[in-house]
Amino acid sequence: MKNIMEDIVSERLEVILKNMDCCKCEQCKTDMKALALNAIKPKYANTLTGELYGRVDTLLLQNSIDIDIAITKAVSLVASMPNHKIN
Ligand SMILES: [Zn+2]
């Protein structure tokens, strides 16, 4: 079983970060992902039998504005106070 939101947030984060002028190191990206995932309801899929359902669902969820909003908020927060020294 896995939380399919993790994959969706990872994919959307890459897209959103392309348009953002902020640190994009692995540490910041992990912080952004964690923050966004905490703000989004997890969605679990059975990775053994639920592959098809999971994939169809993923396509629908990828277009969710709510997810983009949660990720954008997380990016802004981490960008304003990165968890490391500013390079
Ligand atoms: Zn960083």
Which range does the strand content fall in?
A: under 5%
Overall radius of gyration:
14 Å
- How many helices? The count is 4
Number of discrete domains: 1
SSE pattern, N- to C-terminal: EHHEHH
**What is the typical, i.e. mean, pLDDT?**
85
**How many distinct beta strands?**
2
Biggest sheet layout = 2 strands, antiparallel
Unreliable stretches (pLDDT < 50, length at least 5) are none
Q: Could you say which small molecules are bound to this protein?
A: zinc ion
| End-to-end CA span | 38 Å
Sum up the overall morphology in one term. elongated
Strand order of the largest sheet: 1-2
**Fraction of residues in helices?**
55-70%
Give the structural class.
Answer: mainly alpha
Fold blueprint:
Elements: E1 2-3, H1 4-18, H2 26-39, E2 44-45, H3 51-62, H4 65-80
Antiparallel strand pairs: 1-2
Helix pairs in contact: 1-2, 1-3, 1-4, 2-4
The chain binds zinc ion.
Zinc ion binds at residues 23, 25, 27-28, 82, 84.
